[in-house]
Amino acid sequence: MRILSPEAGEVDLVERYAYPSDGVWLRANMVASLDGAAQRDERSGGLGNAADRHLFLLLRGLADVVIVGANTVRAEGYGPVLPTDAWDGIRDGRAPVPPLAVVSRTLDLDFDAPLFTEARARTIVLATATADPARLEAARERADVIIAGEDSLDFPAAVAELAARGHRRLLCEGGPGVLAQVVADGLLDELCLTLSPQLLAGHPTRILNGPPLPVPPELTLAQVLRDDDFLFLRYTR
Ligand SMILES: NC(=O)c1ccc[n+]([C@@H]2O[C@H](COP(=O)([O-])OP(=O)(O)OC[C@H]3O[C@@H](n4cnc5c(N)ncnc54)[C@H](OP(=O)(O)O)[C@@H]3O)[C@@H](O)[C@H]2O)c1
User: Fold this and answer.
1) Chain-centroid distance, C-alpha 34
2) Is 124 close to ligand 1, i.e. is its CB under 6 Å away?
3) Closest residue (by CA) to atom 6 of ligand 1?
4) Which of 207, 235, 220, 236 minimizes the C-alpha distance to 40?
5) What is the pLDDT at residue 69?
6) Ligand 1 centre from 126 Cα, in Å?
7) Residue range 142-199, pLDDT digits in tens
8) Taking residues 65-71, what's their average pLDDT?
9) Is the CB of residue 87 less than 8 Å from the CB of residue 111?
């Protein structure tokens, strides 16, 4: 065992979290309490701090597309991605903001909400072939729809289609239901995990919520950063 000696001074987060220069790369960004909770009061916001929020926004700026499950959109009241000061220069040569790509089977989404009506980059809906035709039509009016899979989203096909549309730097913001499937399908290249210094108990989900993985992947620790009592871990495949 070794002690991690703190590096003096601030780190350059843009450099630290740069995507590989080529190829498709799927990064997930999640926050958990010390006892493994991915939710506090049914949301994730209560788990983070200002640095976590800063990193959350910066990772969006570094991505070509942000994948998120419909439950997270509903629980957290997701609006469209907005540029921030922290993005200074990082999107040069790219669209000003990455689109959100919402995973949904029911398409029970408010297509009149700003997420669809005010998005600077048209929101993408990752849908299934058996989705309700009327909901699908409503989605198509307000979003770019990618159909992958029959009853259940075919995540590898959806990611391949996003990449074919030029979105090779992918960011998945969960939630735990979606992330469990991304991992089960072997699509996760990197996990950015904020460890929040809270103990919550109760019955929140963990950052992956799905059936046990037959072959649990073991990740490699790529980086540990600290802000206050929070740890910011980067693990890669
Ligand atoms: N700690 C963190 O970092 C973090 C991050 C994100 C979210 N959260 C929290 O996690 C909770 C939400 O997570 P969650 O796991 O319940 O939901 P989720 O993963 O955000 O979304 C699940 C939804 O995605 C759609 N979906 C999932 N798998 C699908 C498939 N195979 N085919 C088609 N559609 C599929 C379905 O949408 P439809 O129901 O529309 O069909 C499903 O209900 C919230 O409390 C949120 O605050 C925590």
Assistant:
1) 20
2) no
3) 175
4) 207
5) 98
6) 13
7) 999 999 999 999 999 999 999 999 999 999 999 999 999 999 999 999 999 999 999 9
8) 98
9) no
Q: Separation of 177 CA from ligand 1 center, angstroms? A: 5
Contact 33, 68 (CB under 8 A): no
Contacts of 53 by beta carbon, 8 Å cutoff, 6+ apart: none
Query: What pLDDT is attached to residue 155?
Result: 98
Tell me which residue has its CA closest to atom 36 in ligand 1: 104
pLDDT of residue 8 exceeding 80:
no
State the residue for tokens 């942000």: 66
**For the domain 21-236, what is the CATH code?**
3.40.430.10
Ligand 1 atom with the smallest distance to the CA of 37 is 1
Query: 177 CB under 6 A from ligand 1?
Result: yes
> What is the distance in A from the centroid of ligand 1 to the CA of 101?
12
175 lines ligand 1 (CB under 6 A): yes
- If you measure from the C-alpha of residue 233 to the centroid of ligand 1, how many angstroms do you get, rounded to a whole number? 22
| Spans of all domains in the chain | 21-236
Q: How many CA atoms lie within 13 A of 146 on its CB side?
A: 24
Write out pLDDT tens, residues 70-122.
999 999 999 999 999 889 899 999 999 999 999 999 999 999 999 999 999 99
Residue predicted with more confidence, 7 or 211: 211
